[in-house]
Each structure stands twice: as structure tokens, then as C-alpha cells.
Amino acid sequence: YFIVLSIAFLWGMGFAGYSVAAGVRSGSSQGAQAASFLFFPALFLAPTFVPREALRGWLATASAYNPTTYVIEAMRAIMVEGWINDMIFKGFIAAGSFAALTLTFAVLSARKATEKA
Description:
Layout: H1 2-26, H2 29-35, H3 39-44, H4 57-65, H5 67-81, H6 85-116
Helix pairs in contact: 1-2, 1-5, 1-6, 5-6
């Protein structure tokens, strides 16, 4: 279960970076709280409650482009279906790239905010 925790940690760091960047850019804690609301549509546009094969139409298209899909499928593969290397790799790539992108954005936002001060 260390793999599940690793993927969840990366995904959590990604959303933390996103919230920090939004809070620094907006200059208020309310900005960070409002920005973290984006997590819920991302969660509901992913195959969180049903397998991806059961999704139809625009929801199937949205879930294919949603990085949350690959994180959830990787965790589900480890916990329920067994060790599926392809899904686990995609989950690590999605969570890791999201974390790297948002944490970089947070650091750049913080640098810009401290240069102004």
C-alpha cells in the first residue's frame, strides 16, 4: 500500500501547490479556499464511483482528459484489481506532473509576490 500512499501524496501536493499559488496570487486566504473548490468538479468528472467503461458521451470524453481519472484508476488497480503496471504508471505520471506543475507555479507566484514587497 506504499504505492497508493505515494500516489495520494503526490496528488495532494499538487492540489496544495495549486491552492498556495491561488492564495498568493489573490493575496487572501479566501482566494486559496475558493480555488480549492476546483477539486470537486475534477473528482466528479472522473470515474470515481463507476468504472470508466460505464461512462458515456461527454462524461467519457471529460474523464479521458482529467488527470484525476488516472490517479483514481491507479489506486483502484492496486487495491481492487491487482497489480496493473500500465495503470499505476499513468497514475504516477498524472500525479507527479500535476504536482510538479502546480508546485512550480506556487514557487514562481511566491517569488513574484515577495519581489513586490
